[in-house]
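As noted in the main text, all predictions were made from sequence alone. Below is one such record, for V-type proton ATPase subunit a.
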Amino acid sequence: MADNGGCCPPMDLFRSEPMHLVQLILPVDSAHLAVAYLGDLALIQFKDLNSDKSPFQRTYATQIKRCGEMARKLRFFRDQMLKAGMTPITRSASEGDLDVDSLEAKLGELEAELIELNANSNKLQRGYSELVEFKLVLQKAGEFFQSALSSAEARQREIGSAQAREESLETPLLEEQEMGTDQSKQVKLGFISGLVPKAKSLSFERILFRATRGNVYLKQAVVEHPVTDPVSGEKVEKNVFAVFFSGEKAKNKILKICEAFGANRYSFSEDISKQAQMITEVSGRITELKTTIDIGSLQRDNLLKTIGEDYERWNILVRREKSIYHTLNMLSIDVTKKCLVAEGWSPIFATKQIQDALQRATLDSNSQVGGIFRVLHTKESPPTYFKTNKFTSSFQEIVDAYGIAKYQEANPGVYTIVTFPFLFAVMFGDWGHGICLLLATLYFLVMEKKFSSKKLGDIMEMTFGGRYVILMMSLFSIYTGLIYNEFFSVPFELFSPSAYGCRDPSCGDSTTMGLIKVRDTYPFGVDPAWHGTRSELPYLNSLKMKMSILLGVAQMNLGIILSFFNAKFFGSAVNIWFQFIPQIIFLNSLFGYLSVLIIIKWITGSKADLYHVMIYMFLGPTDDLGENQLFSGQKTTQLVLLLLAFVSVPWMLLPKPFILKAQHNVRQNGQSYIPLQDTDESLQVETAHDPHAHAEFEFSEVFVHQLIHTIEFVLGAVSNTASYLRLWALSLAHSELSSVFYEKVLLLAWGYNNIFILIIGAIVFICATVGVLLVMETLSAFLHALRLHWVEFQNKFYEGDGYKFYPFSFALVSEEEE
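Prediction:
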């Protein structure tokens, strides 16, 4: 198989790439470089040969831990850059100019330096915030003392003037007595000042009053601008407060309350002259700290800028190293601990490239022994790999969302490229709406490079990812819109004048009753004369309903035919004779015959009732057809087709389980004696042992499975055909909605001959068209087309029980990290 390896694969989406299980024996000294080159190649999916070991028991657990620590430091740097409003500089640079050991030491030094700068900056910032708060307390609380002193002096003057007016002899004696009494009873009041969050000020005041039973005096002043809290570092609106109290007990209560409310306390002298001096000192210290903080911030920004220049390069290197060691941990090490053994799946075409990568790793690492490449023979099912490009990948993802194709089974993605947008367009047919979708898609295609390199929102990213699907949908919508002759529901005589004309001048505003055919048939699509007439809806209903049945039967037949190619490819004659043939007969005996009747009726212009024909084909197969006869020998044909349909059901159900049982018995008898193999091959077979090779054959399970499959197909043939009528229903709904918006909004507004009403009507029409027809209807038609492919088409042949080929790739590792 290795001889078939070529330089590049054929671009074939019909079947997945041929794969083989390979074994790589890598010397320890060149294993790291070999895995790195294979990661660049991205064409091998490694198997985990150490699945029984925990991550900590594996060979390279220490190296992964080192890479994880470096990744943590890089995340720390990124967070610091984002906080500083910087973004890492993306530039192309080679990763080879810096090894992992040097990078680890450098990252450690940079982290220590940055942590030290942050700690110093936080310490200085906290001191600065405390000084700013202290200055506010000095200013605001100082005003309390200043106003109290002013009021005391005013009161003293009032008392002095009152005493001067009283000239009696008793007054001085009483005054001395009172003064003596006041001095003996005088109590020294203490005070606590600081700032409390404005949101908590009312609760703070209430708790103080209750805790001290009203034996405090609280004074508050609002700070005009938010201040930076020294503890949290956030901007907070605060009030300056001063609490006056008496006694040590009250002081302790107040201190606890301040601590509970997060109030920052600042003490200062009662002397007003000292307060002014302290304000001057604090202002000077604030200026000095501000200068120091600015210098520190500049130094920190320069360090972050230096880190940002190499951040992407370091990040890529760490990710690569971590993914390499993860892969090396999947390899088993031999007893001599000199070689690593790897197993994995790779496409056959990649054989030469993998061998070249191993040889290059041997040369670059100066290894004495080269890597060994071997192909292993196994019964295990390989992964599924389709080599897609940016156009076909989105269509393949539609199929993969249902299920990954089994290895080398027929891929519906090939047909989905055409059938999916076409069935969408059948439901969405309007060439005006198709042009709007096309313009939106062209914008995505023009901006493709820009959008590919930046992060988009979930919906935007999904839309951008399916841009080529939407492109095909819009082109097919223009095509079907031309067939339906609808441009925002308005018909145009694009290819020739209408084939119908008025019989006389009085029928100008009438229906088709007064029209006669005056020209050749309209060459492409629906004649514009049908639009707006009384018979438009019955005509289009009949046309679209019959067209839906024809499309549905054609696609279901395609699915059954693909099941034949699957059976032929895998060499299953049983599936050809007892699944494909009875299925194709059953479907076409009923609904294939209906499709032929529809075509004959269109060609001949017959007025036969096809509902009557199909119903009485079962209820009265020998009855005379009368006016419903479309061709001679129709009754005999119907009897033969009915008989074939009835015969195909037991044909599909009974033989296959018995044949499978007979085949199983033959295999069991043939495996009673197995010839001896050489040691090398027996080891390979043991390695790739298939656990299902000797599974017991349960005839009852197989028979029940076949019974379910037969019932599902027979009932599904009816329900799936009916399901395709959604093409007619959604096409009709889209056309009628478009017509309502045009006639009841735009034309109605136009009829008022008022520019203001016309502008409002145009805005409503545009919003309704975009919101309902271009967004909701697009999504609805997309989902219905998805259903038709997943259920009606793919269930005829597609098993979808495979698993995807995920090669070891540095590109995929970067995407997963992001």
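Residues 1-11, 167-181, 672-694 have pLDDT under 50 and may be disordered. The radius of gyration is 43 Å. These features were considered when defining construct boundaries for the mutagenesis experiments described in Section 2.9.
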